[in-house]
TrEMBL record:
It catalyses: 7-carboxy-7-carbaguanine + NH4(+) + 2 ATP = 7-cyano-7-carbaguanine + 2 AMP + 2 diphosphate + 2 H(+). ATP binds at residues 46-56. It holds the Pfam family QueC. Keywords: ATP-binding, Ligase, Metal-binding, Nucleotide-binding, Queuosine biosynthesis, Zinc. It comes from the Bacteria. Binds 1 zinc ion per subunit. Catalyzes the ATP-dependent conversion of 7-carboxy-7-deazaguanine (CDG) to 7-cyano-7-deazaguanine (preQ(0)). This is 7-cyano-7-deazaguanine synthase.
Length: 279
């Protein structure tokens, strides 16, 4: 029988105590030790953003060893790959893989086609934004599933959340449930009842909740990257920056907003680092 997508923090069922520390952050408090000396393995899709970093940290807190998987897909904000590497190091992941998948070859998204401007007018309910990348999550989750089966991982950790699924069809609970059914049918491990479970611990959370949880966990927020602009510093104008900044201010961490980062680099809010930045 196909298992359902896990959306609660208790979803990883096997737990193991093994403390870890993040530079400049306190260690995560883990669940009590089990009798097993071998923590279960999880694959975390790691974009370099706040959401995926928080999801990976939750998997670690729940007792998993974690392998990070990131994608160089021709995104204009390739800076996020540097952030993914920094997060993988800070969280002391078992491994971190970066796979090249050139989705920019056919464009169709503001994130892969420089001719399409990045939206900055706010999220519109029921409207799929131009930052949707055709088929991206389906490709990424399929590759994550391949790695999970090859390594015997029990979970595939995703950072999708309520902010995402309000606009993106491949971040919604019904999509995740359908992909779980596919995973159970399409893999040897799934057919044998040993397949990886998709775990989306943030799926019902808004950005403010994610920020609060990231702070509780000691996630290195300053090392993460959410901006879509393709600049060297967060632009503060794109929808992704604005949503993140509002959540940080609400959490009392205005020092981590894009405006604060730019001020530290002596750049005024809204100024572009590169000529032609169209965010």
């Amino acid at each position: 029988m196909a298992s359902s997508v896990a959306s609660d923090r208790s979803a990883p069922r096997d737990r193991f105590h093994n403390g870890w520390a993040v530079a400049t952050a306190r260690p995560i408090t883990r669940s009590p030790a089990t009798s097993s000396p071998f923590p279960p393995l999880a694959i975390a899709l790691l974009s370099g953003g706040l959401d995926s970093a928080t999801a990976a940290a939750l998997a670690i807190e729940a007792g998993h060893r974690v392998i990070g998987l990131s994608f160089d897909y021709g995104q204009r904000h390739r800076r996020e790959l540097d952030a993914a590497a920094a997060v993988a190091g800070a969280l002391a992941l078992e491994e971190h893989h970066v796979i090249a998948v050139n989705l920019a070859a056919w464009g169709g998204s503001a994130l892969t086609d420089p001719a399409i401007p990045v939206p900055d007018g706010g999220v519109v309910e029921g409207v799929i934004p131009s930052t949707y990348v055709p088929g991206r999550n389906t490709v990424f989750i399929a590759l994550g599933l391949s790695l999970a089966e090859a390594r015997g991982a029990t979970s595939l950790v995703l950072g999708v959340n309520a902010v995402d699924y309000s606009g993106y069809p491949d971040c919604r609970p019904d999509y995740l449930a359908a992909f779980q059914n596919l995973a159970d049918l399409a893999t040897k491990a799934g057919r044998e009842g040993q397949g990886a479970r998709l775990w989306a611990p943030l799926v019902a959370w808004d950005k403010a909740t994610i920020v609060r949880e990231a702070l509780r966990l000691g996630v290195p927020i300053a090392a993460t990257w959410s901006c879509y602009s393709g600049e060297d510093l967060p632009c503060g104008r794109c929808d992704s920056c604005r949503i993140r900044d509002a959540a940080l201010v609400a959490a009392g961490r205005a020092d981590l907003t894009s405006a604060a980062v730019r001020a530290g680099a002596d750049l005024p809010a809204g100024a572009a680092l590169r000529t032609g930045a169209d965010c």
